[in-house]
Write a structure and sequence with these properties.
Length: about 230
């Protein structure tokens, strides 16, 4: 068999569940196949937005806020991940891909221990029960994209099964919201990780090659005077 030792091994995308107090990884989820496409939506948080979603604003005060930002842009990601037991010989045959699906589903589910604890507080007559806090989840797409996220969508399309009706092939539609410093409390490890992610964007933007006004058919005098 011909081997090519110089060909680098491809990096996989995935999710890392992190203990927010200590920063230690609790679980690493490596996607079996990197998604073919990524859909990213970035919505700026403009101070001049009227609140109707149009971002135009109608009040006279909005004109003074048109170029101001209230905070980091809200960014969402969507992609399709595939799991195929026929491509992974190490998957246990009795369960099919149940374990891989369950790991992803537990990212949006409280544990039985958390639900029992909440139930005990209810039975004791606690006036207010805080919502259950889930572990911090990071999405990684190479070393330049490591960011805290919250899963907003998990749709599973199971397309093949073994004789025991265990799923052996599935496509998952995954939607995520990037968590920013506006979403997390000050001092939270996720907020620090978002700041590191934003700093990476700034470094990449600084490395981009700038253009010249001539390519746009403009000169410096045109910008100063406002003439087209």
């Amino acid at each position: 068999m011909t081997r090519y030792p110089d060909i680098p091994k491809p990096i996989r995308s995935g999710l890392v569940v992190v203990d927010p107090d200590h920063g230690t990884p609790q679980r690493v989820i490596v996607l079996q196949f990197n998604p073919d496409t990524l859909e990213r939506s970035i919505a700026p948080q403009s101070a001049g937005d009227s609140g109707d979603g149009g971002g135009g604003g109608t009040g006279s005060g909005d004109r003074n806020e048109a170029l101001r930002l209230k905070g980091p842009a809200q960014e969402t990601w969507k992609f399709t991940a595939e799991i195929d037991a026929t491509d992974q010989l190490e998957i246990a045959a009795p369960d099919g891909i149940h374990p891989q699906l369950a790991v992803l589903e537990m990212l949006v589910q409280p544990t039985t221990a958390q639900l029992r604890a909440a139930s005990r507080l209810t039975q004791k007559g606690s006036i207010e029960i805080s919502p259950i806090e889930m572990p911090l989840t990071l999405f990684t797409w190479g070393s330049k994209r490591v960011m805290p996220v919250r899963l907003t969508e998990l749709s599973v399309n199971e397309s093949a099964f073994d004789v025991n009706l265990n799923p052996i092939r599935a496509a998952l539609s995954i939607g995520m919201k990037i968590l920013t410093v506006s979403d997390l409390p000050a001092g939270h490890r996720g907020a620090d990780l978002y700041m590191a992610h934003l700093a990476q964007k700034e470094r990449l933007a600084a490395a981009a090659r700038g253009g010249g006004l001539g390519a746009l058919g403009l000169g410096g005098a045109d910008l100063v005077s406002g003439r087209g």
